[in-house]
Design goal:
mainly alpha; 89 residues; elongated
Length: 89
């Protein structure tokens, strides 16, 4: 295995991780911004008010996007395993 193949594998790994984690991170970020905006308006600075909505949003994102996320991870794993013989030739 040369460095080009290793760098390609690392790029594929990082891209798969980014695309799989993006829905959950994006939704929780938007919910966190919305809750922070409400806290600024109402001047209520309670830490549990930010934690619970983000937890619910992350859970809902996993429920709705979980199948797609699992499909992407499986697609990456199959691609990785199918390329093993090419690494040693």
């Amino acid at each position: 295995m040369n460095s080009d193949i290793a760098l390609q594998m690392m790029r594929d790994l990082l891209w798969a991780a980014l695309t799989v984690s993006a829905p959950v991170l994006g939704i929780t970020m938007l919910v966190g911004l919305a809750v922070s905006f409400v806290q600024v308006i109402t001047q209520v600075q309670e830490m549990s008010l930010t934690f619970i909505p983000k937890l619910v949003a992350a859970s809902l994102a996993l429920v709705f996007c979980g199948g797609w996320m699992l499909h992407k991870v499986m697609q990456f794993a199959v691609h990785l395993w199918s390329n093993i013989p090419a690494l040693f030739s």
